[in-house]
Amino acid sequence: MSLWKIFKSSIIAQLAISTLFSSAVFAEVVLLDRVAAIVDDNIVLQSELEQRTANIYRQIQQSGTEPPAAEIVKKQVLEQLILERLQLNIGDKVGVRIADQEIDQTIARIAASNNISVEDYITQINASGETMTKIRQQIANEMIIMQVQQGTVMRAIQISSQEIDNFLNSKEGKLVTSPEVFIGQILLSAPSTATVDELESIQAKLVTISQQLADGADFKKLAIANSDDQSALMGGDLGWRKLAQLPPLFSASLEQLEPGQVSEPIRSGAGFHFLKLYERKGGEEQLIEQHFVRHILLTPNQIRDEKQTIKLLEEIRMQIINGEDFAKLAKQYSKDPGSALKGGSLGWSTPGLFVSIFEETMGNIALNEISTPFKSQFGWHILQVTERRMQDFSEDILRNRARNLIRQRKYSEELHVWQQKLRDEAYIEIKEI
């Protein structure tokens, strides 16, 4: 890479590179910053490296962890910055842009998560010595990187029906997708060494407790007075448990109970158990509102930037409102190859099928209304919901949960592989740091 190309880059234009001391003969240039690494046609500045290292080193100390040597931290930070530059380069090449409105919304969420107003958040930033301009750029960079990762890695992940079946049939899958139950227990211990007289005494106590429960006695009081389990002083409460985590004897009995009911005595190696089911969640019928939806997708390109893309989408929206045919305009303009030929139709929605912003817009819009333009990781959309209905999606929800778990697992693995490949194929020159 030539020096001229380096000095042409936009990052170098931000350098405070010199102070000139003039004389009749010459001017001396004093460098105030230098390059820590060249990353393709981008760079990492030494000042940026030093500041990021100091911030992270301080965070490690504040967490109570003994930090390693500063040079080790600096090396790790430089690798992080190099990877960020590579991903930002991709975002720049494919035209990923973050609108000011998106940054404002992110700042509002950050402030809300800290239980402060946006104004107080800005005040805290300024008091820390940072500037909102810099914070906004950091947020934009993180959002660009996320879109690049999602668009490159997530889209490449394919999950077959067989993979979902295998997961749901595995021990882990049954545990993850198992219903949860909130239960109480009364345990009457009956060791294997118990004599006949002791067993008769336990049987008599079982009959008494069964009768008291049938008469409406308070389960918690009976547990405190009679249970031999360590949960006795908590009224026998065992809290929320995954049904798949419980012994088969327990889960089989609990599956037959309705909330509020108590089981018949269950014999185990520990003794006799009464189980009370207080609540159950998950595993029941799931009636979900389903939407018949169609959309038009536009993406910025080399000819049309993001503002022009939004403007065109707003014009298309007004044409539809004024009576133009949605399907005709979708076929003409939409950049979603899967739905454009079908007039933008995506058919009936199923839970988890679309990205969150799409599902949120779809769920909040009035029937037959045309949404205002909104952005997802795929581009800018308008959508219309033409029908709604309630459907039982118990099985679909179960499979979508499994699909999302598999996808996230694969995503974590594939993201690391992709990032490593990205670095291996890039031109990287690390200067002396």
Question: Explain this structure to me?
Answer:
- With 433 residues, the chain is of the alpha+beta class.
- It has four domains: 100-152, Triger factor/SurA peptide-binding fold; 153-177 and 393-433, no CATH class; 180-281, Chitinase A, domain 3 (Roll); 287-391, Chitinase A, domain 3 (Roll), CATH 3.10.50.
- Helix content is 48%, strand content 18%.
- It contains 16 helices and 13 strands.
- The strands form four sheets. It has a four-stranded antiparallel beta sheet with strand order 6-5-8-7, with helices on both faces. Strands 10-9-12-11 form a four-stranded antiparallel beta sheet. Strands 4-3-13 form a three-stranded antiparallel beta sheet.
- β1 and β2 (27-29) form a beta hairpin.
- The longest helix has 32 residues, at 394-425.
- It is extended and about 90 Å long.
- The two termini are 20 Å apart.
- The relative contact order is 0.10.
